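[Meeting: bench + compute handoff]

Bench side (C.D.) handed over the final construct sequence. Compute side (W.E.) agreed to return the predicted structure before the next meeting so the bench team could plan truncations. Sequence as handed over:
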Amino acid sequence: MNVVSQDVVVAIPAYNAEPFIQAAVTSALEQHPEIRVLVADNASSDNTVGRIEELNSDRVRVHRQATNIGPHANGNWLLDNCDGDVVALLCADDVMLPGHLGNQLEILVADSAVRLVGCNMIETSQDLVPRRPLRTALGRWRGPDLSNLSVNTLRNLFGGPSNFVFRRRDLGSVRIDSRWSWLSDLDFASRLVGEGWFMNPGHFGYLYRRHPTSDSARLNAADSFLQDREWTEYFLENGGSAPRAIRALRGRVQDDLLLDRLSKEWNQFSRLRRSTCGPATLDRAIARVATRGIAGKAPELLT
């Protein structure tokens, strides 16, 4: 890995990560002797900070929030305070594989048009026993193309956050948007890449640990409905095609009445669009209809 001109900081947001944090930090430190780690502990009630201090590394800096400020604000604190030329994000329960950052840095050094480098991952059990490979979009993609494909297929094809590596100068004012509970990674990546390029060289870069306290493992029926509502809002806000998104939603929302309603509303607003209203007005109207439709599908689960 070429770190002569690349000061790399691995940024790790943490909350009650005592069982996992040492493995995450160690995997980052072992990428190269000059890599630094910055951990933002979100006022954990367990011994997360103590476990980091046990590593006794002068390349690790820990900041503890005075109170829990929420995951979005904690992540943004990291983005505000990372001082490296290159920033790599890593969740506190994930583990980088050997050589991972070297592969990504080679791309950033060689191609100034690439603003975000990703990778594939391996889903594991709590004890890091491999379960299955997980892949993001492979190769080199224009940011708008990959964003549009993600929006219209209701899939985050960038991945993240543990596979995100980028130059700090490309970050600019882009921060994690607290409006999105489930799609903040997709939204962050889309805005960071902008009109530039995303690259996934195809290697498996880290172990994505699933455990009982992880967000994905705790997903329940109410969360699933909220995810569907958020996807609906997101694709319409970001230029998604309603007919395509309705087809994609058909695999996620098993409610023919809702989908029929969305289709009818789209046809109605399409006629209005041709006559009186512009695209922005139309999209806002559809977003309101779609959001009300999904939220009204099972109100008892959303309270």
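W.E. noted at the follow-up: The chain has eleven helices and twelve strands. C.D. will use this when planning the next construct.
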